[in-house]
Amino acid sequence: MTDKLxxxxxxxxxxxQSPGASMTRDEKVRIAxxxxxxxVDVIEAGFPIASPGDFESxxxxxxxxxxxxxxxxxxxxxxxxDRAGEALKGAASARIHTFIATSPIHMKMKLxxxxxxxxxxxxxxxKRACKYTDNVEFSPEDAGRSELDFLCRVLEAVIDxxxxxxxxxxxVGYNLPHQFGALIGNLIERVPNADKAxxxxxxxxxxxxxxxxxxxxxxxxxxxxxxTINGLGERAGNAALEEVVMAVSTRHDVFGCNVDHxxxxxxxxxxxxxxxITGFTVQPNKAIVGANAFAHESGIHQDGVLKSRETYxxxxxxxxGWSTNRMVLGKHSGRNAxxxxxxxxxxxxxxxxxxxxxxxxxxxxxxxxxxxxDDDLQALVTEANLEAENERVKLVSLRVCSETGETPExxxxxxxxxxxxxxxxxxxxxxxxxFKAIESVVCSGTELQLYSVNNITSGTDSQGxxxxxxxxxGRIVNGQGADxxxxxxxxxxxxxxxxxxxxxxxxxxxxx
Length: 512
Ligand code: KIV
Ligand code: ZN
Known about the structure:
Elements: E1 3-4, E2 6-9, H1 25-37, E3 42-46, H2 52-64, E4 69-75, H3 78-87, E5 94-101, H4 104-111, H5 115-130, E6 136-141, H6 148-161, E7 165-170, H7 177-190, E8 198-203, H8 210-219, E9 224-227, H9 241-250, E10 257-258, H10 267-278, H11 299-307, E11 327-329, H12 335-344, H13 352-368, E12 372-373, H14 374-389, E13 393-401, E14 409-416, E15 419-426, H15 430-442, E16 447-455, E17 464-472, E18 475-483, H16 486-502
Parallel strand pairs: 1-10, 2-3, 2-9, 3-4, 4-5, 5-6, 6-7, 7-8, 8-9
Antiparallel strand pairs: 11-12, 13-14, 14-15, 16-17, 17-18
Helix pairs in contact: 1-2, 1-10, 2-3, 5-6, 7-8, 10-14, 13-14, 15-16
The structure holds 3-methyl-2-oxobutanoic acid and zinc ion (ZN).
Zinc ion is lined by residues 14, 169, 171, 202, 204.
């Protein structure tokens, strides 16, 4: 018997701190349900004080999720903790995660506080959080650059005050695996009441070491890892959940803990869902969830795998869900089949009208593409949500003309604030022409930072899923669009990004 490794997912909180990755309340609920299906232990749903929208999202996740603990982030401030407590009221199992920085540079330059005052504030925050739940986590932010003696004092004090989990963040991704492992080992050894709390780690990937550091910490006794799907997160991201889980399960021979409770077959679909909602696509050679992760190109490898798969495969693709993208529905499927497959994917509809609207889209898609896979259904729902949320600019129609040796032209009809506008433009390709036409009438003043197209399923009738990243005045948004016609998918993605940029955003960042 080995210990269970607690998997704490922060895709909805730290993941969302990636520029452009912000998610709507309904999207967060969809992802939370997927994480619950995967049997993730703790879902950090957001930072409730950040904005009314963030509060509502945490509340909605707390109300929807029953089998995982739902956690809300709070700075070590009364108002943050009270807001988190309020948002989590409906949770079957709630955790408050409070934090304050403990490194010399953060205390001096950011907080402008003396260490003793920081310690006092940490203890007060934990005590206040304990009024709402007995499941309280404390993080000394930038622990990876904090002084060991001070860290030990803070951890001892917060555990005495009631913290049941103490999380050690390498906030800036500065540590190396041997150092970080030693840090965790030292803390567990030196903090006198270490046995009263679970030691957790939270690693950022600035040096590409987030997973390696997390695993070194697990080897030294950490029993919770904080991570995100696809490694989404600020800057270079957080430790990738799928990598941590599969490393611990594949190498159970070396770790003193297990992830047997995690349903690994949900990994690929969850990865796809997060990438389709956030527009952060997964690189093909990404471990576990990249399209090439289990593909054997070289003849020698293929030959070996055919004779015995263990020659080159240390994991089975189907164990992480690669073959579960079932063809579920087609042109002749009815509304009930549609509704129940979506329910299995964790998608429910607020009203019959919403279901009907989605079903109409499904029929339109089934006319163009006769095999509809789970990923198609997820993209369809994502798109329905995008349109419902963002209404200022709508794409009414698009016509492109592209011919060998001729300059492509696009004619677009947009509905802007209720008024129809027609416009044409030419460009270096049909997508360029369509974007130029849209921009000539919208005049958004944005700069295109990224344009990417991915096929949702395989085959030439696959839908193309397009991400468009726009920047204006330092604010970055991602827009998504899907269609069997990639020029239309591109125009939808562009319009979606424009709608996001036109929606004012006023939310606080927890660490600023
Ligand atoms: O990276 C970090 O330090 C954090 C804390 C809030 C845990 O995200
Ligand atoms: Zn973080």
